[in-house]
Design brief:
By secondary structure, the protein is α/β, with parallel strands linked by helices. The chain is globular, with a radius of gyration of 22 Å. The termini are far apart.
């Protein structure tokens, strides 16, 4: 018994070694509308920052929404950190509004552009990094294009559409409910003129509710192919062969339009950047499966471009 007690005493007396964290995360309020996380590797040998911009809807800094939790943007940030690259990812401003219970019904797409530009300017003024890149996912690709200026070393479009949002929606309606297409075209025509309308079918209310018409009308003014033509920075377009939302043809359109465009299609990668071996059911379920790793080739492609 005495021997047993002495062994226990010895064991508990030994020093406990914990693994030293390899990253430092700092929470930053860039503006009253933008909160985000700066993730820096302790060995930030490359002295490079990537600004990560999320997809459509109330997407938080990690890439999640209420019914879509996959942590894809957080995984990008930590993968970059493992390769010596710092990153800043932030909540879309509507996330903060929802949390505070004060949603602005007059929110526009231009507000998101301003937020991205504010983030860029914040880090340009800090002057802590030799190079700054933008990574835009989905809708964030277009926002990233519009925030790219002479301070940006390169833009990465992840699953970014080549079409304006009205074109995207009209194509979806044509495939699922073609009889509603003439009404949708008429409403888009009204929105394009800067007005709103209550004259739309109930079946389209999720698209054309009065709460979203200002945002939609503003968003549809921007055409990704036309905007990417104006960029002088190098652009990397990444798309997955199993992206259900953006076709490979659109990715090719973006590359063709860019002055310095490189296209990388990743086999079996879907829109939320996971590898899908099965069909559409597995694909759609994966949007809410945070246990999945990012496509390995994605990280290799990102880090090869960011240099």
């Amino acid at each position: 018994m005495k021997l047993f007690i002495s062994i226990l005493t010895l064991l508990f007396a030994l020093p406990v070694f914990t693994q030293e964290p390899t990253t430092i995360q700092t929470e930053i309020e860039v503006s009253p509308f933008v909160d985000g996380s700066l993730l820096e590797p302790k060995d930030a040998s490359k002295n490079i920052l990537a600004i990560i911009i999320g997809d459509y809807g109330p997407t938080d800094r990690n890439g999640n929404q209420n019914f879509q939790k996959n942590n894809n943007l957080k995984k990008i940030a930590y993968s970059l950190a493992a390769n010596g690259i710092s990153s800043f990812r932030y909540d879309k401003r509507i996330v903060k509004q929802i949390l505070k219970g004060r949603v602005n019904a007059r929110l526009t797409f231009d507000d998101y552009i301003k937020d991205a530009k504010d983030v860029v300017n914040y880090f340009v003024k800090k002057d802590n990094y030799a190079s700054i890149y933008i990574i835009g996912h989905g809708q964030g690709s277009l926002i990233g294009m519009l925030a790219t200026d002479e301070n940006i070393a390169g833009l990465i479009s992840l699953g970014g559409s080549a079409k304006s949002i009205d074109q995207v929606i009209l194509e979806q309606i044509e495939q699922t409910a073609p009889g509603l297409k003439p009404d949708a075209e008429r409403v888009f025509s009204v929105l394009k003129s800067g007005k709103t309308t209550t004259d739309f079918p109930q079946a389209l209310s999720n698209i054309f509710s009065l709460d979203t018409q200002d945002f939609m009308g503003n968003w549809m003014q921007y055409h990704p192919v036309e905007i990417i033509k104006t960029l002088n920075s190098p652009v990397l377009i990444i798309n997955g062969t199993k992206d259900l939302q953006v076709s490979l043809a659109e990715a090719q359109e973006l590359q063709d339009a860019a002055k310095q465009g490189t296209l990388k299609n990743i086999t079996n990668m879907n829109h939320v950047l996971f590898i899908i071996e099965g069909g559409d059911l597995e694909n759609s379920k994966s949007y809410n499966e945070s246990f999945r790793p990012l496509a390995p080739e994605l990280i290799e492609t990102l880090t090869a471009f960011i240099k």
